[in-house]
Amino acid sequence: MALFRMDDDQLVEQESTSFRHLNLRERSDIQRLLRVQPEALGEELLIVSEEFGNWEDSRRRIDLLALDESGSLVVIELKRTDDGGHMELQALRYAAMISSMTFDEVVDAHAAFRARLGDESASPQNSRAAISDFLGTDGEDIALTTNVRIILVSADFGREITTAVLWLNRFEGMDIRCVRLRPYEIDNRVFVDIDQVLPLPEAADYQIRIGRKEAARARQSSVSDGRDFTKYVIISPAGESPELNKRNAVRQMVSVMTDNGVSIQRIRALFRERIFRTVPGTVAPGDATAQALLDREPRLDVKRYFVESPIHEGGETHVMFRMWGRNTESSLDALVAAFPEVGARYRAVRQEPSDS
Questions:
Q1: What is the DSSP pairing of strand 149-154 with strand 73-78?
Q2: Gap between the Cα atoms of 265 and 101, Å rounded
Q3: 231-236 and 239-240 as β-strands: parallel, antiparallel, unpaired?
Q4: How many domains does the chain have?
Q5: What confidence tens digit (pLDDT) does each residue in 87-133 have?
Q6: Which band of pLDDT confidence, cut at 50, 70 and 90, is reported for residue 249?
Q7: Residue 210 pLDDT > 80, yes or no?
């Protein structure tokens, strides 16, 4: 792919340059900017630490260590070269080294990181609160999965790296992504084209879906010695719903509230900003809603939102987050307590896994 400038009668290709030519360095320039704005890599990430190397007998350090919204650790390895070097092997070693990190160790690493940056409020307590808020865990500990994700960031990738990444991603639990940074110098200003090249964004969910399911099961198992099979019945003035899984239970409770006159703005005030996305106009459910979200936020993972059942109110379309997990009951409790006039409640149906 190439970048073109539109003139009146032609498209003029813009020649890319190199970070070396621009005298931009990995750590002091590229790494520093991504540390401040990790969402430029295409997803919501919380940077836990920089130059992390808290293990024995090793002077190697992870460029950036992050958490994603599902609670997985993410190794971010950076190179400014055009072939990526041997960064995939290095990142795999790092992933293995941190795979046994506990939640408390992540909290301590984040607190130390904030202190190094000169944050006077840095403390384990504040880091625990920041991480819990990002993950939506209401202050409770989580058991981190051993399936660590990897994001490789480079000016380009050689065939050896791309072949290795494609092969490794075939295995359940593996999630390695290659993000290319292509710099341009135009009118004495530097522009960077940031593009995920592996796996292709439109195929990424399909290729790693099984691995993420296994990771979620592993996290739940480590907390409760078994998967959580709880379902929920939402009880409203109109009657009882069928037994619903977690994400659909919260979505149903929100529907009960809006059907009984509670505005979406009052509901939104109970949750973090990312729980709802809004686009102007009354957009049809499904593909049209997904495209409207992408038009507004091109890097948004729309599969994490209920695009098939948006909420229309006040000439706008509101789309709710799918990923609730262990926040289900606290979220249901918050909705019931905030709007008692509706008379809604819920019943948890605890289920045990079968022996088969």
A1: parallel
A2: 39
A3: antiparallel
A4: 2
A5: 888 899 899 888 888 888 999 999 999 999 999 989 998 998 888 88
A6: very high
A7: no
Per-residue pLDDT at 302 exceeds 50: yes
Position 108, amino acid: D
Q: Which of 138, 168, 137 is nearest to 152 (CA)?
A: 168
Same domain, 147 and 175: yes
CA-to-CA distance for 316 and 313, rounded, in angstroms? Answer: 5
Backbone angles phi, psi at 251, to 5 degrees: -60, -40
Q: Residue 310 belongs to what domain range? A: 231-349
Say if strands 176-186 and 149-154 run parallel, antiparallel, or are unpaired: parallel
Of all residues in the chain, what percent carry a pLDDT higher than 70? 84
Position with higher pLDDT, 56 vs 154: 154
- Outline where DSSP puts E strands in the chain: 3-6, 11-14, 45-52, 62-68, 73-78, 149-154, 176-186, 189-198, 231-236, 239-240, 276-280, 311-313, 316-320, 345-349
Q: Find the angle CA(287)-CA(43)-CA(94) to the nearest 5 degrees.
A: 140
- How far is the C-alpha of 126 from the C-alpha of 79, rounded, in Å? 32
Domain-ending residue, one of 222, 251, 278 = 222
| Assigned domain for 69 exists | yes
pLDDT at position 53: 84
Residue 148 is given by DSSP the state: -
Residue 275 shares a structural domain with residue 335: yes
